[in-house]
Amino acid sequence: MSNDILFQEALTHFPGGVSSPVRAFRAVGGTPKFFRRAWGCRFEDEEGRTFVDLCMSWGPLILGHAHPDILAAVQEAMQEGLSFGAPSRRELALARRIKEMVPFIEKMRFVSSGTEAVMSALRAARGFTRRDRVLKFDGCYHGHADAMLVKAGSGLVTFGTPSSAGVPAAFGELTSVLPLDDFEALERFFVERGSELACAIIEPVPANNGLLVQKPEFLRRLKDLCATYGALLVFDEVISGFRLGPAGAAGHYGITPDLVTYGKIIGGGMPVGCYGGRKDVMGVVSPDGPVYQAGTLSGNPVAMAAGLATMAHLTPAFYQGLDATAAAWAAAFERLPGLRCPRMGSLLWPLFQDGVTRSDAVQGESITRFNLLHRALLAQGIYLPPSGYEVAFLSSAHDATALGDFERAITAVAGSLGG
Ligand SMILES: Cc1ncc(COP(=O)(O)O)c(C=O)c1O
Which of 166, 279, 284, 390 could form a disulfide with 385 if both were Cys (CB 3.0 to 4.6 A apart)? Predict the structure, then answer.
């Protein structure tokens, strides 16, 4: 059935016709594809057309779509029950695996999404420090909890203002927002407000406003300032966790946060999140401590099984292979006139300007050209994330055949995009 017809019906059911906004294709124009089935690095839409997928469900599918090991593990778990609402051995196995890969995690809790992980980590940080203020950085996305839907206030004022209707202005007053990669603003903020701060939260590899790779010194300075002022450092590794290497961005940079949040890969395509870190901090979480946090489906056995089956593949050799794959795809992108493709591991950001480190440096012209590229590549069977502010995700299923298809598509569209 045609995507257009399905989308017309979807518009009658869902705001914008979708279950999550960026899926609506409003940024790039056109009608969203309705996926019918997916395997490896490809999917088929409801019109029967096949695409090479460079969005990969926004990150969880590091082994590709419908990996046989994950399907087998999920089927086995399903046979034993879909949800217990009680402890089960698969939670332990996934926790053990996470600790093996990320030695600084002493205690953790599973939740059902990245948003929930962040929201809960912030509450734990506030409960532990008995302080209310949190610091975030412009250009980082941390899910849609109220405290995080806040953008920078005007001028030197570091109080935030809500970036979404429905978030009371009073909430914004407790969230401070700073630009990324601005050492001076960082220093000044801590002098003025450091002693009020419960925590600073950052995507150590910001990948939600393009790929705004930070200087390691910026992250290190943030860590030192947090320690000096008695605030906690929270790394939001919902994207970077288990993608950039066994211990994510924390491992890559050699910087240990007090708390970390995960999602995506640890659920292998099923809904999961996790927050954890120092055991004294996690000690405030209910029922050990006074910070309440709960979930009907938390630690869901089927999701745990999918995560475990994924994590079993994540060896150093796996990451080396994935890195080489991603390098080849980035090089193929860069054959397009004027295109740059900053890359961090298997995260790629095709843009039409030199790489940037702050959200305000992304040029409208680059985004306009990305939109043209999106449409042109889609017509050639290549599915990019439907926004120039989103990164592309590679997986171990992006094989040589798919790279060949991609290179042909790049050659086909090169002429039409202008220099
Ligand atoms: C860094 C980061 N944190 C949090 C979230 C929220 O995760 P979820 O969409 O699972 O709620 C996302 C989602 O993309 C993310 O990229």
Answer: 390
Kindly provide the b/e burial profile for residues 72-81, where b requires at least 16 CB atoms within 10 angstroms of the residue's own CB. ebbeebeeee
CB-based contacts of 221, cutoff 8 Å, min separation 6 = 183, 186, 187
* Residue 288 burial class via C-beta count within 10 angstroms: exposed 0-12, middle 13-18, buried 19 and up: exposed
383 is catalytic: no
Q: What is the reported pLDDT for 152? A: 76
Q: Residue 198: which of 242, 232, 152 has the closest Cα?
A: 232
If one residue of 56, 115, 180 were mutated to test the ligand 1 pocket, choosing by the most ligand atoms within 8 A of its CB, it would be 115
Any catalytic annotation for residue 236? Answer: yes
| Burial of residue 109, with CB atoms counted within 10 A of its CB: 0-12 exposed, 13-18 middle, 19 or more buried | buried
> What confidence tens digit (pLDDT) does each residue in 380-410 have?
999 999 999 999 999 999 999 999 999 999 9
Cβ of 236 less than 6 Å from ligand 1: yes
pLDDT reported for residue 62: 98
Q: Which two tokens stand for residue 312?
A: 């079993």
Q: In what order do the strands lie in the sheet with 343-344?
A: 343-344, 347-348, 392-393
Residue 159 pLDDT greater than 90, yes or no: no
Q: 141 alpha carbon to ligand 1 midpoint, in Å? A: 7
Please tell me the distance between residue 5's alpha carbon and the centre of ligand 1 in angstroms. Answer: 30
Ligand 1: does its nearest atom lie under 6 Å from the Cβ of 266?
A: no
How far, rounded to the nearest angstrom, does the alpha carbon of residue 15 sit from its chain's CA centroid? 23
Catalytic-role residue among 33, 45, 136, 141: 141
Mean pLDDT of the residues in the chain:
96
pLDDT-derived band at 155 (thresholds 50, 70, 90) equals: low
Q: Which of 183, 275, 179, 279 lies closest to 225, judged by CA?
A: 183
Domain residue spans of the chain:
3-62+315-417, 68-311
Which burial class, exposed, middle or buried, applies to 254 when counting CB atoms under 10 A from its CB (0-12, 13-18, 19+)? exposed
Q: How far is CA 320 from the centre of its chain?
A: 21
Residue 262 among the catalytic residues: no
Is the pLDDT at 419 greater than 80, yes or no? no
Angle between helices 183-193 and 216-228 (to 10 degrees): 10
CA 139 – CA 242 distance, rounded (Å):
21
Which CATH superfamily, name and number, covers 3-62+315-417? Aspartate Aminotransferase, domain 1 (3.90.1150.10)
pLDDT the model gives residue 415: 84
Tell me yes or no: is domain 68-311 CATH 3.40.640.10. Answer: yes
